[in-house]
Amino acid sequence: MSVLFGILALSDTAVPEEAESAIIEATRLWPDDRCKAIWNERWLIGCKHRFNVPQSPLAQQPFNSASDENLLVIFDGRIDNRLDLASKLSIDLDENTTDEYLISRAFAEYRTELGQHLIGDFAIAILDRSANHLYLIRDQMGVRPLFIASNQEFFAFASNQAALLALPWVDRTLDETWIADTLLACKVDVTSTAYRGIAMLPAAHWMAIEINVHEPQRYWQLELKHEHVERTDAEYIAEFRDLLFDAVRCRMRRISGLATEMSGGLDSTSIAVIASKLVEPSGDQIEAWSHVMPADNIGQAYPYADESTFIRSVCEMNPLINHRWADGRGMGIAASLRRASKVHSGPARSDLSLGSEEIFDALKANDIRVLLSGFGGDQLVTSHGSGWEQDCKAKKDWQTLRHEIWIRKASLTRRWATYLRQRLGLLDRIISGFRRPKPNRKIALMASGLRSDFARRTGYPQRAFVNPTRQLKGTVAERELDVIQSPHVVYRLEDSAVGAASYGVDYRYPLLDIRLLQFCLNLPVEQKLRGGSERRMIRQAMIGLLPDIVRLRHDKAGATVPTIHQKIFRDRMELIDDLNLAFDKGILGSFVHKEPICDHLIDMELSAPPHRVISPKFILRTCMLAAMSSGYENENKAV
């Protein structure tokens, strides 16, 4: 990920020339291949350019197109619809045509409608220096972040918060509601950050900044269509397979080596196998990394599950996968959390690189700049089909409803209870009317270390009840649409982009390709699941490519990084030392109580599930907040 940054003067006050060096110094954790900025008293625009596609070295950013010398373009990401875009703009596309050139030509043609013509992962800033106008835009899913800050004199933007915090006029007051949301893993707001003075430009939005700062405008969203198209099973599967292969292919465009995450689950193994098939003509290999428990901890330490049998079966079937294990023996979790706090300028909400330093250090050492991930698949493209009963009910397809229930429910009592609940809708509504909201056990557990006065100030626990992560009503497609648009998806994309970029690595997500998402959202429910089998499309599309032991499995372990629990256990005394240091400085004590957290760490058992008292997420985020608050106290004595 390249680091974009810029400042626009909104008043007669000049942009300080020293802002450039301050930002570059503040972002030294993020490697670049070329760094350049242009300054005058009205604006500053610059890019720490990390080359990620073959054409990157040819584009001098800030990019100035000969077709309009007043436009300066800085760009982080990758454009996937290059051929289509070039055709619409009457450009002869060749291997030397840069994404930056396509963007500049497209902006000259479409102006604020630019986003409707781009597909890919991108954050873009375009300065019209003749008019002192600035245009910002983010990709549809929010893979590339863009932070913003403003006051009466200036507007600033950057790819990470560290760049903005280097500017003395940016308000560094902590946002207590954001901190509470983060500690309690409540996914609410897509624009707020740890600091009141910094916001996030939302995904699928653009904004224009002139003398005034205009509100962000949405330019894209998934569409829930209710069209009936007569197709055979084979036709649906063929189109799904084509879209899936294309989603992987366009994310393999790169300037150096390629790697992929690979657990033993359906999503990540499918991506790894497809990537290996696509490099087969060139004879290249791809690196695949798998998180596993150390051999001496398998069956002894939570989460117990061992995915290695499934992973080996995939590798045996695909010799172009150069497989590597990551067993968590690298950087300790305490050091990892301190580093993450610096990278994110506070707690990370959901950074996939956190706890994966062993992998990212190896990628950086071998100049591998692209890492494919299966994240996001089970949100929509390979969802488990929650809500299928509502689809049957809406169509009054009682035969299918009864058939699926009888396959899925082992207990005769549960079979009839589920069937009658859907069939007798009025009875279900009457029962629902007498129900009372149940306290969220997860919130209650995580809040056992939260100060009650802090909880009240930030609206908890009520705030958690009115902002559920997942919708519990609606058809399959309605629930899929709700969850794919949930803040928790973009949290992970934004944080993982910033974290991976600190190693010089691009995270790319084939299962979040917007063309694939749109197709899968509107699939008939019987194509998504049938005969008790969920995730039907990808299981059918991967016949002959994945071993059946993986393709047909329904028992995937849930831990993304299974070694986190053992890392916390191993480093718990160091974590306690860090917490004590932060509590001594004062600010952390206004958010959480030290004793229950430290007592929990002391009493931890390697073999016990971690969520009995306080969630690991609460501990990890509290420790990152501790690292942040130590530096915050030194720099903000008046707060």
UniProtKB/TrEMBL annotation:
Keywords of the record: ATP-binding, Nucleotide-binding
Pathway where this protein functions: Amino-acid biosynthesis; L-asparagine biosynthesis; L-asparagine from L-aspartate (L-Gln route): step 1/1
Keyword Nucleotide-binding attached: yes
InterPro entries named among the record's database cross-references: Asn_synth_AEB (IPR006426), Asn_synthase (IPR001962), ASN_synthetase/amidase (IPR051786), GATase_2_dom (IPR017932), Ntn_hydrolases_N (IPR029055), Rossmann-like_a/b/a_fold (IPR014729)
EC category name: ligase
Documented EC number(s): 6.3.5.4
Annotated binding of L-glutamine, by residue: 99
Catalyzed reactions per annotation: L-aspartate + L-glutamine + ATP + H2O = L-asparagine + L-glutamate + AMP + diphosphate + H(+)
BP GO annotations: asparagine biosynthetic process
Chain ranges of the Glutamine amidotransferase type-2 domain: 5-212
Alphabetical list of PROSITE patterns matching this protein: GATASE_TYPE_2
Sample GO molecular function, one term: asparagine synthase (glutamine-hydrolyzing) activity
Listed Pfam families: Asn_synthase, GATase_7
Family: Belongs to the asparagine synthetase family.
Protein name: asparagine synthase (glutamine-hydrolyzing)
Source organism phylogeny: Bacteria, Pseudomonadati, Pseudomonadota, Alphaproteobacteria, Sphingomonadales
